[in-house]
Amino acid sequence: MYNKKYKGGLEYIRSSDDITIKEAIDRLLDAYKLKRKFEETSILAVWPTLIGKATANRTKQIYIKDKKLFVKVESAVIKNELVLMRRQILGRVNEHVGHVIVEELVVL
Questions:
Q1: Rounded Cα gap, residues 88 and 71, in angstroms
Q2: Do 94 and 42 form a contact (C-beta atoms < 8 A)?
Q3: Mean pLDDT, 10 residues at a time, over the chain (108 residues)?
C-alpha cells in the first residue's frame, strides 16, 4: 500500500478496490435514496450565496417540493425582483447541484 520513496517520504499507491471519500458518500446517499434530499438541503444552505445576502435576509421561508422552489419573502419589491430574475435563479440553483433539480420558482 505504501511505497517508500528515495527522499524518505511515503506515497500512497491506490489499489483497484479503493474509492475516494466522495465516491463512498455518493454511494451511501444513493443506497439510502437520500441524494435528492441532500442536494435540496445544500441549495438551502447556499441560498445567500446564490441570490445575495440582502435578498436572502428578507427571505422568510424557502423549501423545495415536486421540483418547485418555493420562496416566501416579506417585501413586494423583493418579490418582484425574484420574479424578474426567475430564470437566472433557476440556472444558479441547478448549476450548484450539477443537474436539473428545480424546474420552477414560486414566489410567495
A1: 15
A2: no
A3: 53 74 91 91 92 92 94 94 95 94 95
SS3 72: strand
Residue 81 CB partners (closer than 8 Å, separation 6+): 55
Which triple of cell numbers denotes residue 50?
Answer: 446564490
What lies within 8 Å, CB to CB, of 1 at 6+ separation is 12, 13, 15
Give the pLDDT confidence score for residue 91 in this predicted structure. 96
Give the other-Cβ count within 10 Å of 59's Cβ.
18
State the Cα–Cα distance between residues 13 and 3, nearest whole angstrom. 7
In this structure, what are the phi and psi dihedrals at residue 57, rounded to the nearest 5 degrees?
-65, -25
Classify 50 as helix, strand or coil: helix
